[in-house]
Automatic annotation (TrEMBL):
This is 5'-nucleotidase SurE. The gene is surE. It comes from Harenicola maris. Its main location: cytoplasm. Gene3D superfamilies: Survival protein SurE-like phosphatase/nucleotidase. It catalyses: a ribonucleoside 5'-phosphate + H2O = a ribonucleoside + phosphate. Keywords: Cytoplasm, Hydrolase, Metal-binding, Nucleotide-binding.
Amino acid sequence: MRILITNDDGINAPGLEVLTEIAHQVAGPQGEVWTVAPAFEQSGVGHCISYTHPTMIAQMGERRFAAEGSPADCVLAGLHDVMTDTPPDLILSGVNRGNNAAENTLYSGTIGAAMEGALQGVPAIALSQFYGPDNAQTEDPFEVARIHGAKTVKTLLDKGTWGGEGYQMFYNVNFPPVPAAAHKGVMLTHQGLRRTVKFGVEPHIAPNGRRFLWIKGGAQGEHTGEGSDAGANIDGYTSVTPMRADLTDHAALADLRAALGDVIA
């Protein structure tokens, strides 16, 4: 098996080292793991692509490349340049430093890379490690991902739903903010919503007198309900959420058709 890995924390991020370990376990002794990751941190860029300017790419080692672009750019570079003659069987993105559950999913470059993989027709999984008071200051905050990551990926490859018509499915995996000994298992979930948490800005005046805004998030410990990703993570479970790039609200569309018909006058 050939696996392409990327992330949004950058080529030197510790989570990418964890993902490399996971990918080698999944690929097996005869497999190949190729890395195309951002040269610099790209957190929060979502599914952005560098459509209006070129992306420089440099080889850092055997099957290891850094690209001055977004995670989605890295997937495009991997598929259509680096691995064009030997395309990957699987794309893994992560392991992100911090959760990509609930509303974070919509901002995440980690998710953006997996989404681009799915749009390109390649099975893709995003993996993120939730940080919290029980694991953030431990010797290995990625312990749960490191121990349970490969098994989770293998299970999805063996038993998950892949392919189909239209937008391809990909998976969002979040490991809980607990030590490995407190990990309770894996749970299928839907995307949650932290109703009291919103992104905002914090103004600062630079030494030169210019005004700058820092984007800031909120507390991540809010439980998002039973059956949701962040809720499962806070309860000690790894969450697995099936996703597609289709943003249509199909339930609302059906209701609107019933009320208005297919054509709105």
